């Protein structure tokens, strides 16, 4: 062997050693796939990303996961199911992410939930609340859809319990025509029946509708005394504006989308104060919550979006714990199994999560973690009235 050949082999060996070391140190990619620009809920998506990034900063500062840094690959699905499906495929197949956060809009999750299940890659929801998102694709099937957020059906359980306790006689339901709205409508009809509440009128509206007086006039004629709205922030605001047009003000309950500043802006201060809804947080109250809020508040479109920051932060910490327990960032089966059997509590911002998931339960937050909320003087405040005081566990029928 001549000296040039020996030198060449040494160069190759040294290069392979460098490549191997680089591969070992390669960052663990996580993905986000959700609306950041198009729908009334886009600010929620943006807040969720802020929370994920804050958690990644803290995790990396503490040494990362499995000796590697976390990075976030962001895709804006612009609230379009075809775009969201494309993003999910690219994140999993091309970017090789260990897990995907999102989406912002429930309908998009329903459009692509088969993809992470087929490819065995965890999807961690932290915004979209549709009930069926975390249901397995078929009975007994392994399920790769997890969530750290509010759940639509649990909200409906709470709202219908409130309506019943408040003495509602006739319910009116309005839902937007998206997957989010129609999923909520299904839950509302079913839970109202469980509560023995009469649904006098059920109507639909498009997200872009600015006049809902026709639907409301039907409610008024049917003597509906309690209206439940399931729509995003802006359309819910338009319902309130239309109520003013026809001078019809029943008791109003709504989905948590009314916490969005887009609802407040669409309804205006006085009308925005009428609905009661549920959310996972009202204000930053614990030292950990206050510290995170102070750290990121300048990035928020509105303080009310902070709850999505918390969901994103806690979801990332839970996922990181699962990666550590699984001992891998590339084996989706082991990551799913770790999430379903987390051994150590996770000290989150919302709460401490003790075994948040199991094989059959993929929701980290349930009705026990929610509060009744409304707007007052431009701020979100907890509702502490005679109805909430009288509610007990037996009133929440599922």
Give an overview in words:
This protein is α/β, with parallel strands linked by helices and about 400 residues long. It has helices at about 5-25, 40-60, 80-95, 105-110, 115-120, 150-165, 180-195, 215-220, 235-245, 260-265, 270, 285-295, 305-325, 330-340, 385-390, and strands at about 30-35, 70-75, 100, 120-125, 145, 170-175, 200-205, 225-230, 250-255, 275-280, 345, 350-355, 370-375, 380. Helix 3 (about 80-95) packs across helix 4, helix 6 (about 150-165) crosses helix 7 and helix 13 crosses helix 14. The N and C termini lie far apart (about 80 Å).
Quick summary:
This protein is 44% helix and 16% strand.
Radius of gyration: 23 Å
Overall tally of structural domains: 2
Instruction: Assign an overall shape.
Output: globular
What profile does the largest beta sheet have?
5 strands, parallel
CATH superfamily of the largest domain: Response regulator
The percent of residues in helical segments reads 40-55%
- Spatial arrangement of strands, main beta sheet: 2-1-3-4-5
The CATH architecture assignment of the largest domain turns out to be 3-Layer(aba) Sandwich
- Unreliable residue runs: 1-24
CATH class of the largest domain: Alpha Beta
Which percent range describes the beta-strand content? 15-25%
Helices and strands, in N-to-C order? HEHEHEHHEEHEHEHEHEHHEHHHEEEEH
Instruction: Please report the total strand number as a whole number.
Output: 14
CATH level 3 topology of the largest domain = Rossmann fold
Structural category is alpha/beta
The N- to C-terminal Cα distance equals: 79 Å
Mean pLDDT: 92
Helical segment count: 15
């Amino acid at each position: 062997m001549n000296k040039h050949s020996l030198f060449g082999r040494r160069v190759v060996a040294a290069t392979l050693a460098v490549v191997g070391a680089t591969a070992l140190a390669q960052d663990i990619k996580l993905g986000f796939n959700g609306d950041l620009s198009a729908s009334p809920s886009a600010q929620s998506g943006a807040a969720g990303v802020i929370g994920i990034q804050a958690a990644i900063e803290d995790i990396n500062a503490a040494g990362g996961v499995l000796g590697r840094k976390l990075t976030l690959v962001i895709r804006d699905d612009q609230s379009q199911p075809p775009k969201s499906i494309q993003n999910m495929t690219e994140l999993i197949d091309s970017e090789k992410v260990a897990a995907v956060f999102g989406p912002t809009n429930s309908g998009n999750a329903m459009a692509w939930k088969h993809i992470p299940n087929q490819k065995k890659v965890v999807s961690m929801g932290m915004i979209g609340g549709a009930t069926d998102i975390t249901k397995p694709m078929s009975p007994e099937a392994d399920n790769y859809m997890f969530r750290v957020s509010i759940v639509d059906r649990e909200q409906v359980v709470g709202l219908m319990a409130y309506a019943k306790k408040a003495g509602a006689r006739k319910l009116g339901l309005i839902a937007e025509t998206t997957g989010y709205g129609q999923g909520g409508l299904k839950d509302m009809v079913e839970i109202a029946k469980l509560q023995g509440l009469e649904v006098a009128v059920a109507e639909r509206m498009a997200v872009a509708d600015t006049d809902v007086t026709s639907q409301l006039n039907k409610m008024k004629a049917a003597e509906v005394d309690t209206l439940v709205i399931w729509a995003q922030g802006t359309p819910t605001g338009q319902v309130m504006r239309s109520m003013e047009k026809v001078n019809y003000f029943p008791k109003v309950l709504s989905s948590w989308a009314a916490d969005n500043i887009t609802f407040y802006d669409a309804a205006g201060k006085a009308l925005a104060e009428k609905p009661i809804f549920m959310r996972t947080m009202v204000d930053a109250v614990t030292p950990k919550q206050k510290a995170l809020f102070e750290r990121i508040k300048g990035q928020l479109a509105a303080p009310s979006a902070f709850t999505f920051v918390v969901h994103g932060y806690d979801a990332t910490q839970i996922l990181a714990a699962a990666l550590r327990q699984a001992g891998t960032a590339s084996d989706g089966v082991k990551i799913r199994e770790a999430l379903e059997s987390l051994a150590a509590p996770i000290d989150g911002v919302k709460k401490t999560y003790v075994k948040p998931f199991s094989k059959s339960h993929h929701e980290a937050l349930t009705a026990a973690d929610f509060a009744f909320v409304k707007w007052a003087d431009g701020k979100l405040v907890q509702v502490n009235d005679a109805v909430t005081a009288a509610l007990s566990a037996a009133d929440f029928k599922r």
